[in-house]
């Protein structure tokens, strides 16, 4: 799986993954890879309070594939790594540009 979607908005961080095959098709056709089908994404929401409070932000992984998708098992296995990456982006105060430079195209 490859991180191919990173979106940082006020109080929200979203990271999506796709398969290496879908990524390759996008790249080989002259695209940047971000348009490949997202199989799973992680979202951290309600991050406006910062790390010093005792708040509990919404933290979720969402799946966008059928039960019969041949890549389902791999997406389920690899997506568990996404929250740690989202938290690293948040705790390090990365901008969207910095997060993309660091994580976009990363194999997990």
Brief overview:
With 108 residues, this protein is of the alpha+beta class.
Description:
With 108 residues, the chain is α+β, with helices and mostly antiparallel strands. It is built from 4 helices and 4 strands. The protein has one domain. Helices cover 31% and strands 25% of the residues. It has a 4-stranded antiparallel sheet. A hairpin with a 2-residue loop joins strand 1 and strand 2. The radius of gyration is 14 Å and the shape is globular. 27% of the residues are buried. The mean pLDDT is 90.
What tags apply to this protein structure?
4 helices, 4 strands, globular, 108 residues, alpha+beta, 4-stranded antiparallel β-sheet
Shape: globular
Arithmetic mean of pLDDT: 90
Summarize the biggest pleated sheet.
4 strands, antiparallel
What value does the Rg take, in angstroms?
Answer: 14 Å
Number of helices: 4
Class derived from helix and strand content = alpha+beta
Helical content (DSSP H or I, runs of 4+): 25-40%
What number of structural domains do the residues give?
1
Strand content: 25-35%
Secondary-structure element pattern, one letter each: EEHEEHHH
**Strand elements, count:** 4
Strand order of the largest sheet: 1-2-3-4
Q: End-to-end distance, in Å? A: 6 Å
